[in-house]
Design the sequence.
């Protein structure tokens, strides 16, 4: 195994390997940065460029793209409250609040450091459990997904700020939105009003960009001169963000481990993991009351999970030859076109290729973090630009992003509707994040529940006979009061802002 | 009066000139075809079998066109491929917008859910079929039945749990048809996408799945199950170790009934919008057929674990006509498929 590691990692660390991984990572960085153009689009566009390469270097370049993608999305989440992908949405809450306080540099530094550490942790875990990887992937079935989804819905309490009733209303609206589209049991369209563009449901990106980014742009345009309320930005904050992250290694590790596990479940992924990490961070924090108001831990937790989840998503790919996420589905396509077939055969016969894939993935993350740290101060300046210039630019970028994802005008229309809804929610003081959680978790809860009912002939006992499900469900009430429980073990201090 | 006549002559002249220009333009466009990039719309997300097949065609088709232009793939997923198919059905009939899709799925939508469809499969111009999937039955490791009779007997005791990637997908329709023409009893568990079925088999949650041969070989390679049979009279080149359904003991009558039905299987085709200029259609059909025989293209087919069983556009056009006729005569089956 060690020889295979040296051979695989060695190939990536040649000048040619590093060059290809860096090109891939830079492409990933740019695509992550542009809202809507996520990892799947980046990988599918780069595949034709790899046709002339050897399979090994093609794979290194494709893995570099995936390694580099998530940090790009974090930048826009922090600076302009616009997540590059759904998985970056949790970073908006405290990242953007920090940007409004003139601390964008600090948030970007924390995001880069926690993202890289989460990524490295994920890859280390992935390599460490190679022999048992398939068992881990097969460990979680529909009852466990259901418990995870229900637990996730309870996060509404954690992200509702001061308005629990508003959070429940918003979360319920998100769940209702998740019901649009094809009914998972009978396969027929549901709540589509005869419109084919609603068959695939409400796109998460339209909701996030509408109620978060564009609604915030209206507020910015009507009420503020620039994102940074003081009109200044602390340029020394980038390294301070890195230092703050290193002081919170337990949070990075916990969120990262959770990200790897959730990433390993096909079809769940980063959208869920980053919110769970947000709740974890809040529960572990000495100052949970400052979450949503610019607590750096609200950036560190989701970013660590968001990056480690990508390593987790490689597990189904490497152990079963099936993709764990949309981006690994495209990666799998690219690998197959080059004659590489991930799965048990590759694990047994081409372990060096597996190590090259993981090393290139990590190297891609390192490249983008390096570029990101260097460029963070320039990005932070965006928060001082006059709203009269910034708002039209960001709005166009957002609408282009929603259109580019699927090439549908209906997506632009939906985004505009959600913008109006989001602005109304801001004015009525109704939290917006629960609506996003409802849309993300609704399908997971509904579909896993339906599968459970099909398997058990409608008996709810299926949730009580699986040990992991029982543990997950039992942890839900604990998680609801986690901050109180953690608080009991902490020495009492005077309130400080984190 | 004179001036009015002059205006009239001028208007008529402009009209005739325009008509001639358009006419000449059309003639030129056929003679000059292609002179800009051709787009293949793939109505599913990137990364899957259709996408890989279409990209393999897009890579080598330019070699065989009269003029070398780029052929690009545009993923337009949604509505169980219907959004992309509708979009190309209504596209400009100039040969620059094509669609790569599952003709059987679209045919089924036309007959089983007509309210969702605004196209007529008979009117599409088929340029060629690049793959007719060889389907098969895969069983989990805890299933030990080696023959068709044993499988039917086991299903009579307790319906076999079969995993699908969702209601209405090929993984669901094929076993529905198999059940309709045989004594096999199945219980369907619908997962959220095909990627969740393999792990379900690995966990022992479901006992069976139906899919293309590469699904069966993947199950065997990942050691989560085994190939019970392929639905064909010959063994599949990709999986010569897996017996045919007839070798596994499936009655010939069941096989014949199943494969004669218009909605069984997956036909991966490339088509142009109705009304496309016949000369352009001929150019495209010819280039596509040459592509199907190109050794580099075939190497790509091997890599993506595809089947090499293409059909010319003309032959497939005829076959679709027959399938439509058969569908019109299969009212009972259509009722059964309205799950």
Sequence:
């Amino acid at each position: 195994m060690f020889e295979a590691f040296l051979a695989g990692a060695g190939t990536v660390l040649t000048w040619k390997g590093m060059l290809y991984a860096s090109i891939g990572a830079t492409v990933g960085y740019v695509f992550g940065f542009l809202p809507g153009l996520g990892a799947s689009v980046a990988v599918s566009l780069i595949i034709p460029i790899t046709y002339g390469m050897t399979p090994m270097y093609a794979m290194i370049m494709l893995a570099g793209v995936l390694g580099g993608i998530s940090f790009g999305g974090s930048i826009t989440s922090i600076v302009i409250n616009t997540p590059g992908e759904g998985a970056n949405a949790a970073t908006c809450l405290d990242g953007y609040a920090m940007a409004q306080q003139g601390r964008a540099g600090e948030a970007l530094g924390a995001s880069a450091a926690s993202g890289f550490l989460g990524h490295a942790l994920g890859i280390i875990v992935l390599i460490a459990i190679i022999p048992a990887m398939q068992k881990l992937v097969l460990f979680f079935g529909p009852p466990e997904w259901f418990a995870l989804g229900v637990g996730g819905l309870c996060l509404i309490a954690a992200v509702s700020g001061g308005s629990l009733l508003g959070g429940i209303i918003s979360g319920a609206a998100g769940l209702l939105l998740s019901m649009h589209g094809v009914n998972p049991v009978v396969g027929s369209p549901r709540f589509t009003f005869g419109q084919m563009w609603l068959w695939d449901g409400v796109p998460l990106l339209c909701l996030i960009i509408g109620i978060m980014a564009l609604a915030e742009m209206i507020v910015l345009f009507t009420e503020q001169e620039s994102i940074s309320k003081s009109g200044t930005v602390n340029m020394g904050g980038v390294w301070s963000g890195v230092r703050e992250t290193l002081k919170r290694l337990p949070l990075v590790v916990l969120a990262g481990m959770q990200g790897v596990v959730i990433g390993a479940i096909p079809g769940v992924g980063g959208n869920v993991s980053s919110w769970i990490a947000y709740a974890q961070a809040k529960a572990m924090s000495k100052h949970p009351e400052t979450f949503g108001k610019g607590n750096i831990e609200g950036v560190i937790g989701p970013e660590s999970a968001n990056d480690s989840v990508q390593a987790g998503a490689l597990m189904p790919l490497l152990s079963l030859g099936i993709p764990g996420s949309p981006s690994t589905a495209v990666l799998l396509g690219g690998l197959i076109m080059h004659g590489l077939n991930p799965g048990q055969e590759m694990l047994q016969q081409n372990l060096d290729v597996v190590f090259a894939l993981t090393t290139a993935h990590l190297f891609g993350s390192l490249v983008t973090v390096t570029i990101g740290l260097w460029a963070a101060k320039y990005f932070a300046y965006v928060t001082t630009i006059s709203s009269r210039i910034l708002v039209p630019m960001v709005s166009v970028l957002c609408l282009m992003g929603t259109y580019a994802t699927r090439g549908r005008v209906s997506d632009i229309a939906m985004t505009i509707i959600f913008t109006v809804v989001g602005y109304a929610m801001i004015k009525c003081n109704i939290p917006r994040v629960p609506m996003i959680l409802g849309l993300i978790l609704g399908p997971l809860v509904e579909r896993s529940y339906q599968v459970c009912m099909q398997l058990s002939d409608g008996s709810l006992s299926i949730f009580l006979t699986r040990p992991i499900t029982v543990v997950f469900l039992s942890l839900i009430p604990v998680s609801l009061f986690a901050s109180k429980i953690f608080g009991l073990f902490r020495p009492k201090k005077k309130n400080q802002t984190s | 009066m004179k001036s009015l006549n002059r205006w009239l002559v001028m208007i008529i002249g402009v009209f005739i000139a325009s008509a001639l220009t358009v006419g000449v333009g059309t003639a030129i466009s056929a003679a000059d075809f292609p002179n800009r990039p051709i787009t293949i719309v793939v109505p599913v997300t990137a990364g899957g079998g259709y996408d890989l097949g279409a990209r393999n065609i897009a890579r080598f088709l330019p070699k065989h066109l009269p003029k070398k232009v780029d052929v690009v793939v545009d993923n337009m997923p949604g509505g169980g491929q219907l959004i992309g198919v509708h979009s190309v059905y209504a596209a400009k009939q100039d040969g620059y917008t094509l669609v790569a899709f599952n003709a059987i799925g679209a045919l089924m939508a036309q007959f089983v859910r007509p309210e969702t469809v605004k196209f007529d499969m008979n009117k599409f111009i088929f340029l060629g079929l690049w793959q007719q999937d060889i389907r098969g039955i895969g069983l989990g490791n805890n299933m030990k039945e080696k023959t068709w009779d044993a499988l039917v007997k086991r299903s009579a005791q307790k319906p076999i749990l079969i995993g699908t990637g969702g209601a209405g997908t090929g993984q669901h329709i094929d076993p529905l048809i198999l059940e309709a023409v045989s004594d096999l009893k199945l219980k369907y568990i619908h997962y959220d996408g095909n990627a969740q079925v393999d792990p379900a088999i690995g966990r022992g949650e479901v006992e069976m799945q139906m899919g293309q041969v590469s699904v069966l070989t993947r199950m065997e390679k990942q050691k989560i199950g085994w190939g019970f049979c392929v639905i064909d009279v010959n063994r599949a080149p990709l999986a010569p170790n897996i017996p045919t359904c007839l070798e596994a003991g499936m009655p010939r009558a069941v096989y014949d009934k199943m494969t004669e039905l218009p909605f069984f299987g997956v036909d991966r085709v490339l088509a142009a919008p109705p009304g496309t200029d016949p000369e352009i259609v001929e150019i495209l059909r010819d280039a596509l057929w040459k592509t199907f025989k190109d050794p580099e293209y075939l190497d790509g087919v091997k890599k993506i674990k595809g089947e090499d069983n293409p059909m010319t556009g003309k032959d497939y056009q005829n076959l679709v006509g027959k399938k439509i006729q058969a569908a019109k005569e299969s009212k009972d089956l259509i009722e059964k498929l309205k799950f």
